[in-house]
Amino acid sequence: HDASPRRSQRFVAINCSAIPETLLEAELFGHVRGAFTGAVANRQGRLEQANRGTLFLDEVGTMSPGLQSKLLRVLQSREFERVGDSQTVKVDVRVIGATNSDLKRMVEEGTFREDLYYRLNVIPIRVPALRERRADIPLLAQHFLDRLAREATPPRSRVTVGQDAQQALMAFDWPGNVRQLENV
């Protein structure tokens, strides 16, 4: 959704696969005090935090069917209730979803809602696997080295990838894509 001409620069991200399903709903929608054990105060969810900005849902394909339904409702109506609350919260938020899963196949298998798929798939962007864009490997490796050098204590001067190391990096298939390269 991008109906508001006054969109802010607010960007909120959440990794849907990193949060247990039982907590993901409260993370997205927020909760009121007493909604569940440990809910000692009212808390805004990520949707509300991203109001008039962008919510990035990483690994959206891992969401449960129930949560998919609730997200679809928010995308359609631009409103929701916090967990344990009956008061409606209105939001104007752009949602960007990313996943390593084949959502189209998941729709065919019945594990991802078709209506949510089409709601999220407005402007699809496919990022090819790293093995399909080997020319990016030296650039990414240098970027990661530069960042590590800046973050070192004390900060280091520029470190470069040697030719033998670069050849080894280029020859590898990188099944874990950019994250694997970053970790290496």
Separation, N- and C-terminal Cα atoms: 37 Å
Write down the secondary-structure element order.
EHEEHEHEEEHHHHH
The percent range for strand residues is 5-15%
| Rg from alpha-carbon coordinates | 20 Å
Q: What share of residues is helical? A: 25-40%
Tell me the strand order in the biggest sheet.
1-4-7
Ranges where pLDDT stays below 50 over 5 or more residues in a row are none
**Mean pLDDT score:** 92
Q: Which structural category fits the helices and strands? A: alpha/beta
Give the overall shape. Answer: globular
Per DSSP E runs of 2 or more residues, the count of β-strands stands at: 7
Count of alpha/pi helices? 8
* Major beta sheet summary: 3 strands, parallel
Explain how this protein is built.
- The mean pLDDT is 92.
- This protein has helices at 21-29, 46-49, 65-77, 103-109, 114-120, 136-151, 163-171, 177-183; strands at 11-15, 30-31, 43-44, 54-58, 79-81, 88-90, 94-98.
- The strands form 3 sheets. It has a 3-stranded parallel sheet. Strands 2-3 form a two-stranded antiparallel sheet.
- With 184 residues, the protein is α/β, with parallel strands linked by helices.
List keywords for this structure.
184 residues, alpha/beta, 3-stranded parallel β-sheet, 7 strands, 14% strand
Chain-wise SSE layout:
Blueprint: E1 11-15, H1 21-29, E2 30-31, E3 43-44, H2 46-49, E4 54-58, H3 65-77, E5 79-81, E6 88-90, E7 94-98, H4 103-109, H5 114-120, H6 136-151, H7 163-171, H8 177-183
Parallel strand pairs: 1-4, 4-7
Antiparallel strand pairs: 2-3, 5-6
